[in-house]
Amino acid sequence: MKTLKNQNTTGSLKKSSDEMQVTGDLNSDLNKFQIARKAKTFDKIRDLPEMEARQNLGMIFTKAANLVGFKNEIGDINKADIRNMIFKEYRNLSLQEIDYAFEHDRYSGDPIDHYQMFNSVYVTKVLKKYIKWRNAYRKENQLDKKALPIPDIKISEAEKQQNHENFIRMIFERLEVRETVHDAWLLYDLVDAPKKDDVDYKKNLYNAQKAKYYEDEKNVNPFKKITRGEGEKYIKNRCKAIIVSKYLKDYINDYEIFRSKIISKKSKN
Fold first, then answer.
1. Confidence of residue 123 (pLDDT cuts 50, 70, 90)
2. Structure pTM?
3. Are 79 and 58 in contact (CB under 8 A)?
4. Interacting residues of 6 by C-beta distance below 8 A, sequence separation 6+
5. Which residues contact 207 (CB under 8 A, 6 or more apart)?
6. What are the tens digits of pLDDT across the range 147-156?
């Protein structure tokens, strides 16, 4: 599996497809027949640890947006909404299939119009298009009737660790140009940020973010509003992201020091 270039990069946040490392990169050696044939053997979203699924989905979205030509970075609320939609409606798909769904749309000759809006509406259309093709292709080729030897595709521990390292590199590069990265909340349990123990700070931060969230929600199209329950979850994760971002921002001048402030998943386990 390819690895990210281990160097400090500044400037544009956009990365080439070679630099966006996700589990779906395993698709690069498979043709569409193999993808359709092996779809049932991939680990499904429902079977993955939540953090692993969220990290890989975020990288798949970024890769897809870059290759399609989106001009702006995907908004945090849209990312949260897309993940929520996938966990609820498409949890029976695998990371490989979701990654391939965007490739299938790009190569179809009739890509779905996105109007520079990478949101749950656009992603749903891409996934439905892939599922329709997959089911038709399997039926046409009688794949469900053939007793073909299908290897059990598993993600190795080394690949999981590499995905984790790639995610940390992505957070680092975004913090170079931003004050807060929403996805940084996924590292909350892996950092020893002093503010995690400051009850008053966390209470004030939560109240401020809650007020901001519901004020912003007033201006959101009612058909796109996140439910109140999901809103509370978003607010809490936003607070975690701010605490982690502020803590790691102090070490942004040196990636190795930055990386050392994040507890390895192995040592935590």
1. very high
2. 0.49
3. yes
4. 169
5. none
6. 444 445 567 7
